[in-house]
Amino acid sequence: MGRGYVLVEGHGEVKAVGNLVLRLWATRETVTPWTRPIRWKNLHQRAGVEKGANFVRAKGDADALLVLRDEDDLCPRDLGPQMAGWLRELDLPFPAAAVLLKPEYEVLFLPCLPLMAGRPLGSGVRRRPGLLPGTEWTDPWEQRRGIKEWLSRHYPPGRRYKPTTDQLPLTQMIDLSMLRAADVPCFGTLERALRFLATSHGPGEVYPPVDLPDIRNT
């Protein structure tokens, strides 16, 4: 049996994305196990994506690959197919998907702030204050950059949001039904990508779909 691999950018995302993908995958009728996400450099560049995908290829046991990164500025509708085109040209022996979270991973927390606000993070000796009671987001989900900094402003005095310690406990508080109902565009893309990887697509196939002749040499 092969395994699913995930490439991510940040230290905190290794555990947080691992938790989220496993929870989402549990709703699929498939037995492919997912490994702990791998932190990989330069996923915003073609060379970085190619090196990461070839690293997974060399493992020899991959059934699926998900490349997940943030995109602060440009449109995922353009960059997602471009990244998928890079993956497709590698002729990987497994299906692969590219997902960009706009503007950053923390956008997935915003619809669930009512569940997170006022609750401590961690447990035992690592228990610490989290978001202040009443914290809420009123802008469109993907409109504002700097969500990490915004979260820090809604922590108690002397505390700030730290991805390495806070991404996982906040991810564990995400209510998937609430997140789906909020219709965050990049989360919809993530779910479609996992659905694609779960439906027995053949080697070399990619999500999102690309027109290969238009992607070459870009």
Walkthrough of the structure:
With 218 residues, this protein is α/β, with parallel strands linked by helices. It has 2 domains: 3-104 and 182-215, Rossmann fold; 110-181, no CATH class. It is 41% helix and 11% strand. It has 9 helices and 5 strands. The chain has helices at residues 11-25, 46-59, 76-89, 113-116, 147-152, 163-173, 176-182, 185-198, 212-215; strands spanning 3-8, 38-39, 62-70, 96-101, 206-207. It has a 5-stranded parallel β-sheet, sandwiched between helices. β3, α3 (76-89) and β4 (96-101) form a beta-alpha-beta unit. The longest helix has 15 residues, at 11-25. The radius of gyration is 18 Å and the shape is globular. Mean pLDDT is 92; it is low at 213-218.
Structural features:
41% helix, Rossmann fold, alpha/beta, 218 residues, 5 strands, disordered C terminus, 2 domains
Q: Care to give the gist of this entry?
A:
This protein is α/β, with parallel strands linked by helices and 218 residues long. It has two domains: 3-104 and 182-215, Rossmann fold, CATH 3.40.50; 110-181, no CATH class. Helix content is 41%, strand content 11%.
